Every structure is written in C-alpha cells, then in structure tokens.
Amino acid sequence: MTGLRETILNNVRRREKWNNSAEDVISCNNIFCRVFIMKNKTYNRKKILVVFLCAALVLCALIGRLVYLMIFDAEYYQELAQDLHEREREIKAARGEIVDRNGVVLATNRTVCTISVIHSQIEDPDLVTEVLSEELGLDESEVREKVEKVSSMEKIRTNVDKETGDKIREYDLPGVKVDEDYRRYYPYDELASRVLGFTGGDNQGIIGLEVKYEDYLKGTNGTILTVTDARGIELEGVAEDRIEPVAGETLKVSLDYNIQAYCQQAAENVLEEKQAEAVSILLMNPQNGEVYAMVNAPEFNLNEPYELNTGVQAETLSDEELQEQLNQMWRNRCINDTYEPGSTFKIITASACLEEGVVDLDDTFVCPGYRIVEDRRIRCHKVGGHGQETFVEGIQNSCNPVFMDIGLRLGADRFYDYFGEFGLFDLTGIDLPGEAGTIMHRREDIGIVELATMTFGQSFQVTPIQMAVTVSSLINGGTRVTPHIAVGMVDEEGEFIEKFEYETESGVVSEETSETMRTLLESVVSQGSGKNAYIEGYSIGGKTATSQTLPRSANKYISSFIGFAPADDPQILGIVIIHDPKGVYYGGTIAAPVLRDIYDNVLPYLGIEKTEAMVYTK
Question: Does the active-site annotation cover 553?
Fold first, then answer.
C-alpha cells in the first residue's frame, strides 16, 4: 500500500507543480483513496462471482441428485421405506416324505413350533419371562436375557411340541410369536438308519437319502409379512401378507419295509449271538440294481441321531472325540468301508478264467493242503488238503490251491485287466453319499505271490456293494447294473412325477460263462461248502468266505456269504458280512445260515415259487 502511495506522489510531482504544502498532501491522499477503493471493488466483484458460481454448481448437483432419486431410483427407496414398516417371519415348508416300494412311510414330518419375541412389542417383560421359562422348561435368566435384548426378533426355542406351542399362544402375550414349523420324524426309529439318513436343526439333510435328494425333499419356505409403525408395533386392522410355502416332493425308494425289518432282525440276532463288532446285510435285485434291504447293525435311532449307540457316555468325551464317535456311528459299512472279500472273490476269479478259456470244468488238480509260491507257503483252509479234485469240486470245496493254479495260468496282467473289465476299479454309482473305492495293488507291483493271494480274495479290499454288483453281473447274463435306492418322485396318489433312470453295461461276460457260473454256484450250496444256505424246494447259488482283517496278528475275522435265487434265473441276491464274530467264525457255518433264514421268509414274500434244485452233473 505504501508503494502505491509513493507512485501516485511521483506522478503528481511530474505533472504539476509541487510545493509540499498541506493542500498538496491532502490532494495526494484523496487521489490515493480513490484509486485504492476502485481497486478493492474490482477484487471483491471477482470473489463474489466465484462464490456465486460455486454455489450455483452445488445447487445444480443437488437438484440433479434429487431428480434422480425421485424419478429414476424411486422404486428402490419405496421398497426400503416399505421394509422399515414390514416385519418378515419365515414359514417352513413341509419336507417331502420318503416311502418304500409299497407306499409305507419311512420318513415324514411332525408339526412343531418356534417361539420368538419382538422386543418393541413386549408390554410386560417380567410376565413374558415367567410364562416362557415355565412352559418351555428353560432357565429364567436365559429367557430374560433374550426377552430384554433389543432386536427385531429373538428366537427363544425351536422344535417345541405343538401342544406346548398352543398353550403359550393362549396366553395372548403381546410381543410373543408362536410360529408352526416342521420337524423330521421317522416312524420306525432305527429302521434303515444309515440309508434314510436324518436332518439337522434347520431341517436340512445330513447323511443318506436325506442329503442325496435334498433338492427334491426340501421344498420352498414361505413368509408372513406384518406392517408396523416407526416403533416396530404391529398396526391393527392391517391384514398380514402371506407367501405360502411349497412342500417338498415325495421320494419313493426300492426298499421294502418288511424285507428291511426282517433283515434287521436277523442281523441283530447274529450280532448278539456271536458278540460281533457289526453285521451288514444287503439284498438287491441283480437284474436291475434295486436294493430291497440294506442293514448295518447296530443301527441308531433316527429320531435321536446324536445319542451314541455304543454305550459310551457322551459326557466323558471331548467335543472332538464325540464327533468322531458320531461319524463312526453314522457310517454305512455297505458302501463307506472296504474289506478283504476272501473266498467270495473266487466267483470273480473263476469267471475270468472261464471267460479267458484257461480252465475247463473237468480239469483236475491236486491239493496237498498248500502251495509253494516263490518263497511263500500259502495254505488251504483244509490243512490235510483235498487231494485230487476237479475244477468243479475245487469250487465246491473252496480250495485255495486250485484258484492259485488257475490264477497263475491267467497271469497277473490279464487278471488285472479283468479287474477293470468287471468294473472293480470304478465306483458302483449307488445313490448314497460317501461310496469308497477299491484298494488294489498297482499293476507293476503284482508279483506271483500277490497274484496267488488275490485269486482267493486277499491282499486287496473292496466294498460290500461292489461285491454284490460285480457278482450280479456275472450271474445275470453279463450286465453290470447300477445299484440304487431311489426309484422316483411320486404325487399324493403314488403316481410317478419323475422316474429315475440308471445306466447299465452289457457284455461284462458271455451268457455262456454266466450260465456256467450259476450252475457251479448252485452246486456249492447243494453239494459243497455253502450247504448251510440250502432250502428245500429252492435252487440257491452262492459262495462262502472267511477272511482275516489287518493286522493279521489281531486274529480278527470276517465271515461272509453271497447267495442268489432262483439259481437258474436270479431275482434276488444277498450278501451277509459278520465282522469279528467270537467263537466259530467260518462263513459257511455262521453267515450262510443267516441268509438261508432270510430267504426262507423273503422268497415266498416276493412270490418266488419253489422248484427242483438244478444239481450239477458232468
């Protein structure tokens, strides 16, 4: 500012006479003030213009945003506003039932209630706490904590029986909601527990068919919409909006309640009699793969699936130990576990050798009670040996040396090839979760000793369902079927809405080989080691087995028997496996009679009439 004043004085001095009088000074100051004021006015106008422009831009932006919200985004904010005044409660859909082949209900639903509280609607917290704790049998402090919790809705208890729910509803307590729900119910408790499976607290499948067919069974939940004011209080006189739930579809399965119940009873009897670790029984149709019964004793209670059936107190276990115990209890031994099949595998060895043409029925062998293979002495179950015998007699006697001999004729490579051709390297594709695969040597690791032991079913492992399916293909004419439980979805009248289709593979063996095997296996029951499965008037084919579990030093055995009927036209095939029986453990002695007793009841039930046995003759 001082510089500006000096500039003005210098200009005045040059243009006018300057006397430094008082008048000159005042004149100079006046000129200075006029210039300064003019300069400030120009500067302020620029500032005002900038501020105005900025304000105008902000105002335009706000107007634009408001227009966008009111016109283009109006629907979204209308929905948000509606949500603030609506309270949504879920209506659970009824889960689809599971029925057996005859329409017997194996899994259904029971009506239960879910008790909830809405904090903003409660008028008397003390009364609500008292009533709910008393009627539900809950600790009062636990209930009070939920009642006083500030939330839109707080669940007090689920799966409350309908009678208790109705009683609470009669109190008509503001803020207390009683919604009906469904809980899975199994009318026969333990029947086919590992096949049917069970559901969790959210009614979702956990194991078995319940989880496999979850998408069909679960249905679609509905909702109840109520209108509230700003405080969350429901408005009177405003009707509720309901979206009705859609129930799940009904699943029809191939299981037969009567056959399953009888097999389970037979399994429990031998389990107790032999003090065994477990007993598995599987019955299926070898022509189409339908499973009539699948038992894994001891079964567990489907209505109380978290209660151990082993006698162990859950309170004594850690959470990890308890879960491990439950996982073991829920395992389906027929499909989830593998075992050494033992002599039942001789059916497969014999079929491969007959198909390859390396053995004839009248070939003769000598059994001294053992074979020396490389540096190993591998014995027969008959210590003194069977002496001279034909191939047919070798099957009837279940003679290990005979099968070692024909296996060595076949060779390790071709034996391995037949494993693949018979489908033993593949899963069966059964419609249950968790199927295990075959545990087998690599091709390059199979030496003469391994080949010898494999011919009579040792040194590798398969599942029971794999054995049942493979043997089915060898005695049904050479068609490998897909084992299955589910047949399709049906309506209320039992008519199919959707029928499931399953793959088959033909040409596993020739019809000639299949017919020969049916005849040979019938002779095993009528004249050989499987005679304890014989039923007068019925032609039954089958094979016994006794295998030792690992480690061998534990001296634990698995007794088993595979049998089918009628032998000339198989309509049913069964397998009985007894794990670690006490006392006598030979399959022909303890497993074959179990299937005989089952067939004695099941064959007439299925309408299979008695015929003359087809005794093998040369």
Answer: no
Give me the pLDDT at residue 222, please.
85
Domain count, the chain: 3
Per annotation, catalytic residue among 343, 472, 514, 523: 343
Domain that holds residue 20: 2-60
At residue 431's C-alpha, the angle toward residues 428 and 433, to 5°, is: 95
Return the SS3 of 497: strand
Q: Map residue 252 onto helix, strand or coil.
A: strand
- What's the token pair of residue 540? 């039954």
Nearest alpha carbon to residue 600 among 563, 568, 569: 563
Same domain, 503 and 584: yes
522, part of any domain: yes
Same domain? 30 vs 170: no
CA distance 135 to 163: 11
- 125 located within any domain: yes
587-to-391, 523, 577 alpha-carbon distances in Å:
21, 17, 8
Same domain, 215 and 126: yes
142 membership: H or E segment, kind and range: helix 140-147
What are 111's strand-pairing partners?
A: 182
pLDDT at 18: 47
Pick from 555, 556, 559: nearest CA to 544: 559
* Cβ atoms of 506 and 549 closer than 8 Å: no
CATH assignment of the domain containing 115: 3.90.1310.10
Count Cα atoms within 13 angstroms, Cβ side, for 72. 5
pLDDT band at 194 (very low <50, low <70, confident <90, very high): very high
Q: How many CB atoms lie within 10 A of CB 421?
A: 16
Distance CA(599)–CA(257), nearest Å, equals 15
Span 321-345, pLDDT tens digits:
999 999 999 999 999 999 999 999 9
Three-state DSSP state, 401 = helix
User: What's the rounded Cα separation, in Å, for the pair 272 and 277?
Assistant: 10
- Using pLDDT thresholds of 50, 70 and 90, give the confidence band for residue 224: confident
Residues 456 and 353 sit within 8 Å (Cβ to Cβ) = no
